[in-house]
Amino acid sequence: MPTKFSHPYQPLLLRILHGLTSLFAIAAIITAFWTYNTYDGRWGQVALPKFPEIEGIHGTFGLWTLLIFPFFVVYAFHRGQRRLIQSDSLKKITRFGQPIWWYTVHRSINTLSILALTFAVFSGKMMNEKWLPQGELNHIWYYAHLISWLILVIFIALHLLMSVKVGGIPLILSMINWQFRSQDSPTLWCKHITNWPSNFDHAIVKQWFLSLSTLKIIEIFVLISIVLAWVISIIKEII
Question: How far apart are CA 114 and CA 152, in angstroms?
Fold first, then answer.
């Protein structure tokens, strides 16, 4: 594979995880609106066919998003943390209009987009698939889920706009370019996974928790929210 690129380079694993998460989330957003249009429509409707099965399709895309999302989160907050908010972001956000201000806003939008998706998948798992077919439209978690997907749409739009602002079209295209450098080769992934246990150090983990930063707190919050989404939904099924 070529090792020189004339455009911004994104790690292959980031492109895969970002691409899958984005694909499933956008599909869930589209089917979420169709679901709302079919069963609700109190705040406006469009001329879409009434399709009762759309709620199940939306739930499937939401489930796929939830399944891939934790892997993207772990990657983003570790290997991709320079693309998220930094410890000095508050200082840099005051340098309005300068290039670093745009980069800081971009990183903040990236971080908030992850939080928005967390809210969306969590609120979705809190819902019951029988509510809408039975006409039960006033549940708090249904309203929360509607709000979450609206927020997510806004942040996806801001994410795209800021990506174009700081990196232009080449940055956007770099996320869908399937060329990769030799050190990013999928053939090495198995070796990295095999070596991970031997490189695991409890002292490093302890130090990681002792030196908590805003970014680490956000990561812990997101991962706990994902775990709770599964646990609470399983408990609801049992009860």
Answer: 9
- Answer yes or no: are the C-beta atoms of 136 and 196 closer than 8 Å: no
Local confidence band at 108 (pLDDT 50, 70, 90 cut-offs): very high
Please give the Cα distance from 217 to 213 (Å, whole number).
6
Over 60: is that where the pLDDT of 63 sits?
A: yes
pLDDT digits (tens, 9 = 90+) for 171-203: 888 787 777 777 777 777 777 667 666 665 555
Secondary structure letter of residue 50 according to DSSP: P
Question: 83-93, pLDDT tens digit by residue?
Answer: 999 888 888 88
Q: Do 118 and 225 contact (CB within 8 A), yes or no?
A: yes
**Residue written as tokens 């772990």?**
74
**Amino acid identity of 168?**
G
Q: Angle formed by the axes of helices 99-125 and 12-39, to 10°?
A: 50
Q: Can you read off the two tokens belonging to residue 52? A: 């009762």
Place of tokens 């895309």: 61
Distance (Å, rounded) from C-alpha 103 to C-alpha 107? 6
Closest to 111 (Cα-Cα) out of 216, 226, 224, 230: 216
